[in-house]
Amino acid sequence: MTVVVVESPAKAKTINKYLGSNYTVLASFGHVRDLPAKDGSVLPDDDFLMSWEIDAKSKKRMDDIARALKPASKLILATDPDREGEAISWHVLEILRNKGALKDKSIERVAFNAVTKSAILEAISNPRAIDDDLVEAYLARRALDYLVGFTLSPVLWRKLPGARSAGRVQSVSLRLVCDREIEIEAFKRQEYWTIEAAMKTAAGAPFDARLVEIAGKRLDRLEIGEGDTANRIVSAIRDGAYTIEKVESKPGKRNPQPPFITSTLQQEASRKLGFSSKHTMQLAQRLYEGVDLGGETVGLITYMRTDGVQMAEEAITSARNVIAENFGREYVPGSPRRYVTKARNAQEAHEAIRPTELSRLPEQVRRVLDDDSYRLYELVWKRTIASQMESAEIERTTVDIATAGTDGRRYVLRANGSVLRFDGFLRLYQEGRDDEDDDDGRRLPSMAQGERAALVKLEPIQHFTEPPPRYTEASLIRRMEELGIGRPSTYTAILTTLRDRGYVKLDKKRLIPEDKGRLVTAFLEGFFKRYVEYDFTANLEEQLDRISSGDIDWKSVLREFWTDFIAAVENIKDLRVSEVLDELNEILGPHIFPQSAEGGDPRQCPNCGNGRLSLKTGKFGAFIGCSNYPECRFTRQLGESDREASPAASPEGQLLGVDPETGLNIALFDGRFGLYVQLGQPEGKEKPKRGSIPKGTSIEDVNLELALRLLSLPREIGLHPETRQPITANFGRFGPFVKHESTYANLESPEDVFTIGINRAVDLLAEKQARGGKRPGAAVIKELGEHPQGGGPLQVLSGRYGPYIKFGKINATLPRGMDPENLTVPEAVAIIDKKQVSTGGKPAAKPKAAAKPKAAAKSKSAAKPKASGKSKGTPKAPAKSEAKTPPKQKVSAK
């Protein structure tokens, strides 16, 4: 008997079918342990000793794996083929070794790039050892992220109340968004004019041209700066004779783009399909894990976290065969195309993202996929096939038309266009573009030098220069990739973190920094500039890549980083909050104190007239206040404006459009329980159909398309394979869910309601039934420690109705707007006392005579050992029982 460990239950089911009865395949459900979210999980003064903690769910799963290993002779670790997958295998191995479950067991590590029978069997027959270099790269990355977060975040909380946290890569990505906003705010619009002509040839064929030259001088884009100049030019050439002076045609080629890597998949799915990066990766994960095809679960695409653009030889051969069969031999290039990654050190050198079987056309799997999954599979298939197709042949043509003006000067207008001589890969696929100015699709009529052209229309067009565009998720990922910030597995997590912590918001698919995000960025730039510099972060990422390739020692990287970083933290600890705010006033001055149209001092208090406005900090964050406080109590929030109330709050609601089926109006309303959409108006006692807007959705993002999707709910996913009863998805009082008969299971995100497939729905329902229908226990958000007056620990938990504080048998809900992660012990005690008084109790009694401390339990909560020679700011020591060091030798694959 052999036990195989993978990450997901869906993958476990598929692989179990391939391997047969001699194998037991179990899922770890992702990472099985992590660094506890408290001080002391990484000890720089103890050679970066790391303490790991297993949550209750993972402990149960590891117990199940250990139990299954008892009659087995072999353990195969088959987690994902990347740095995170290698780390999960290492964690599983360490836990099982500590349990004594590996005695007399042989251990193998296998990796596969696709969940197909051939790929699985090939991997099983070629095992290897755990790659210690990849594990050490993971440990270094995890330690760095922890040390930055748990050292820098407390400094933020003390110096900048209301700030949530800072992160090694997250903060640099936030800086990109904030820097772009500064560029936009500093941008000065500039007027310019162009002279546009509608013309036709002697044969009457129309074409368009633009003025490009006057008296032998080429016009710059901003050359004509005002309307009077433009009108004088039009008057000078309106009645002139136009002659074709030059016709120049140049043959050219357009080559296809390489197959997708993680970042390009996210970018193209955003441009072409309108998907967020998170939604794209959720869909890709399902396509990778597989769907049921003819009674067999088959993975449809290869592993989706990669920055390698190369494909296996058999895949290239298959692609060329598909091209010949479906498009003709003329579309197959003479030799296969080979692509090389542009990344300085492509992580683990995986294949590009491609279909596992290129002969499996999108239409052949449409019936087993939901709409979004099908569209993404089609995108991957087309991009992969196109990457091996013949180049497109394009003839680009430039025509210069000359005329003499009434002012005696010579004027030249130019027409640009192209003719597609052979479509090549463009027959199947064309990459989405951010720019719209593309001459490739503009065709010109046949023209000859010396031929006359007739002017149909001539007009001056006014333009204004545009500021740089705000980042979309796609363009931010592209910029991060260009700078070497982050890696394929981190892009989505970074963007999600920035939004979840309120540092940025998404408005019409554009990322806009919130004031909280700008404050954090300004603080870091003012006092920790080196650590938010793009080059510094990129160089650190490159060092992590060198660790993964075995070139440098991981602890030497940590030592070098920590020495300078802790010194920078120490330098700011003694700064007063007022000094920090003075610095922020200067950095953010143009943003928080904008110059008014009337002029004057933007920092003069509008209330008392002689006070100075400046940043202040309060219990719930930063705000603008007057220097004459308390005599003058003028305040305003950052970003406060006089925006009108939303139309959705009116009795008629905000009209979104008309339902194409019923012809009834669909409107958006802002009710007492939040936003909702409504179909039609009430008729008598019959209520119109309504759909609640998912929590977290911006009012700007609500459109007719979303409204129609919400009003179509509940969505039937399919029939349960055992009962043949329908499984549906919908939104309820407590968020998105799936339902089968009387069993409900919660979904992770609102988008899952529209995208979840039958396999995943069945898994979630089975997990819920295995728990006896009970909800999972409340997750601990923060451990506050013992109540200062005794009586037990204070904890902040995530409950069904939001975060709350637990103290003994008392549960007290946090006031709305209070950040659970930044809650202090005095605040928690005040909330607990208030709850006790309101329920007829008394505040916690003052402690009696000091009691003898209880004996430390032999567990994770054991007394922490003292470490000598600590510097200020060094995290506390961890519990000995959980402290682990990285592997010193490779695990035998025999």
Report strand %: 15-25%
CATH class value of the largest domain: Mainly Alpha
CATH topology of the largest domain: Topoisomerase I, domain 2
**Structural class by SSE content:** alpha+beta
User: Span between N and C termini?
Assistant: 16 Å
> How would you characterize the largest beta sheet?
6 strands, antiparallel, barrel
DSSP summary: helix tally: 23
Spatial strand order of the main sheet: 7-8-14-13-10-15
Q: What is the gyration radius calculated from CA atoms? A: 32 Å
Helical residue percent? 25-40%
Q: Enumerate the spans where pLDDT stays under 50 for 5 or more consecutive residues.
A: 435-439, 640-645, 844-894
Question: What can you see in these coordinates?
Answer:
This protein folds into six domains: 2-130, Rossmann fold (3-Layer(aba) Sandwich); 139-187 and 469-579, Topoisomerase I, domain 2 (Orthogonal Bundle); 191-255 and 392-464, Distorted Sandwich (Topoisomerase I, domain 3), CATH 2.70.20.10; 262-386, Orthogonal Bundle (Topoisomerase I, domain 4), CATH 1.10.290; 593-630, no CATH class; 779-838, no CATH class. Strands 7-8-14-13-10-15 form a six-stranded antiparallel barrel. The chain has a four-stranded parallel β-sheet with strand order 2-1-5-6, sandwiched between helices. Strands 21-22-23-24 form a four-stranded antiparallel β-sheet, with helices on one face. It has 23 helices and 33 strands. The radius of gyration is 32 Å and the shape is globular. The two termini are 16 Å apart. The relative contact order is 0.11. By secondary structure, it is an alpha+beta fold.
